[in-house]
Amino acid sequence: MSIENTKSSIQKWHHMLESRDMSILDELLADDVVFRSPVAYNAYPGKQVVTFILTNVIQIFENFTYHREFYTEDGQSVVLEFSANVGEKKLKGIDMIQFNEQGQIVDFEVMIRPKSGLEALAAQMGQRMAAFLPK
Q1: Residues 36-91 pLDDT 10s
Q2: One CATH from 1.10.1240.10, 3.40.50.300, 3.10.450.50, 3.40.50.2300 for 3-126
Q3: The SnoaL-like domain covers which part of the protein (predicted)?
Q4: What contacts 122, CB < 8 A, 6 or more positions away?
Q5: With 0-12 CB in 10 A as exposed, 13-18 as middle and 19+ as buried, what is 27?
Q6: Which of 62, 65, 89, 92 could be joined to 120 by an S-S link, Cβ 3.0–4.6 Å?
Q7: Helix axes 115-132, 47-60, angle to 10 degrees
Q8: What is the pLDDT of residue 5?
Q9: Is the pTM of this model over 0.85?
C-alpha cells in the first residue's frame, strides 16, 4: 500500500470530522476493524460497534482539534495527536490508526491523558455503551 492511499483516507477522516458526516465511516472502516479503547482492556471488534463508538465519542468531545500527524515508513499506519474537552475536563490524546491495502481502517487504538479527562470520557461513554451492548 502506498502512503498516498493512507493520506487519502486521512483526508476523508478529517473531512468527516469537520462536516460531522459520520456516514463516511462506512467507507473508511474495514468489516473486521478493531477498536482499542483507552478505558477497556478488551478490544471491540467489528464495524458496527466501532461505528457506534466513534460516532458517540465525537458527540462527547468539545473543542476537538488535531495538532500533528505522524506516518510510519511503510505508509500503513498514522498517529494523530489531538486535544479536546469533556465538560470542564481537558484532555490530550493520540489516535493510532492502521490501514489495510484498500486504505480502510483495520485497527484503531486511542490513548488519552490525564486521568481526569479520561475518567470524564469513560463516564459518558460507559452510559452510551451500556445501552448499545447486549446484556
Answers
A1: 999 988 999 999 999 999 999 999 999 999 999 999 999 999 999 999 999 999 99
A2: 3.10.450.50
A3: 10-107
A4: 39
A5: exposed
A6: 89
A7: 130
A8: 85
A9: yes
